[in-house]
Amino acid sequence: MGNDTVPHGREKVFVSLQGRVLDLVPKGPDWVPRHNAPDLVLREQGRAWVLFDGRGRTWTFTAPPALTGAGLWLLSRDGPRP
């Protein structure tokens, strides 16, 4: 307030998975759900984002070339539990 800089909005990250939409907030380098999913962690890995469920299951999201820069990442791999 009081200076001539343009305000910037906060980055918003949402994950839609298995019928649920989760609002994520930053926690260090990771993103975690704001409510109701304490075991989930979203982490950027190279050109993908990987969601860990705390029980050994992972979901990998990538941006298809046609959507690069759109801020939309699609599920590309659903990893089984070990």
Lateral strand order in the biggest sheet: 4-5-6-7
The separation of the N and C termini measures 51 Å
Category by helix and strand content: mainly beta
Beta-strand residue percentage: over 45%
How many structural domains does the protein architecture include?
1
Strand count, sense and barrel status of the largest sheet are:
4 strands, antiparallel
Helix content: under 10%
Number of helices: 0
Radius of gyration: 15 Å
* Shape verdict: globular
Order of helices and strands: EEEEEEE
Task: Walk me through what this model shows.
The chain has about 80 residues and is mostly beta strands. The protein has one domain (about 15-80). Helix content is about 0%, strand content about 45%. The mean pLDDT is about 85.
Write the layout of secondary structure elements.
Blueprint: E1 13-17, E2 20-27, E3 30-33, E4 41-45, E5 48-52, E6 58-62, E7 74-79
Antiparallel strand pairs: 1-2, 2-3, 4-5, 5-6, 6-7
Brief synopsis:
The chain has 82 residues and is an all-beta fold. 0% of the residues lie in helices and 46% in strands.
Which features does this protein show?
four-stranded antiparallel β-sheet; three-stranded antiparallel β-sheet; 0% helix; 82 residues; globular; mainly beta; single chain
